[in-house]
C-alpha cells in the first residue's frame, strides 16, 4: 500500500493585540507587523521555515537556536511558530518597507538534512533588544527580526526559496508538505 499523504494545516498570520488574522498569498504587510505560522499535523513532524526578499536576502525563521520549540514538533497540537523565547511568546517582525517577501514552509515526517544545510547557511531571525524600536533594526530587511508576540487575550520565482521548493516537490514524497507564500511589504 502506498504511504498516505502528510496531513498538515498551516496558516501565516498577522498577530495583533486582538488576536490573529490569516494572510493569503499576496497580502500586504507593513513595518512593525508581527507574523507567525500556525501549524498542526496529526503526527510528529519536522517543520522548516525560510524567508527571502525580492533582492535575494534570506533568513532562517524556524527552527532557531534558543527557541523553546524545536524539531520534531509533537503531533496533534496546534503550534504557533516561532514560539516562546525565554518563556515569552515571540513572532517574526517585518522590519522594512517595499517589495515582496517569500516564505517557504516545509513539513516532513522525517528530518531533512538538505533543508537543514540551507538553514545553517542563512542568518537567523533575531529578537530586537528589549524595547528597541523597529527603526533600530534597519540593517535587517524584510522579516529578519523577532518581537515579543501579543498575548492571547489581548517576485520572479528564481530565488533560492523557489529552487529549494521545486527540488523538494519533485521528490513526490507523500511524507513531505511544501508551500511558498508571498507577501508584499507596503511602500511608504
Explain what you see:
- The protein is mainly beta.
- The protein is built from two helices and 14 strands; from the N terminus they run E-E-E-E-E-E-E-E-E-E-H-E-E-E-H-E.
- Strands 1, 2, 4, 7, 8, 9, 12 and 13 form an eight-stranded mixed beta sheet that branches. Strands 3-14-10-5-6-11 form a six-stranded mixed beta sheet, covered by helices on one side.
- Strand 1 and strand 2 form a beta hairpin.
- It is globular, with a radius of gyration of 16 Å.
- The termini are far apart.
- About 10% of the residues have low confidence.
Major sheet details: 8 strands, mixed
Class by helix and strand content? mainly beta
The rounded distance between the terminal residues' Cα atoms is 55 Å
Shape: globular
Number of strands: 14
- Given the structure, what is the number of helices? 2
Determine the strand fraction and express it as a percent band: 35-45%
Q: Helical residue percent?
A: 10-25%
Write the element-wise H/E pattern from the N-terminal end onward: EEEEEEEEEEHEEEHE
Radius of gyration, in angstroms, nearest whole number: 16 Å
Oligomer: single chain
Mean pLDDT: 83
List low-confidence stretches.
129-141, 153-157
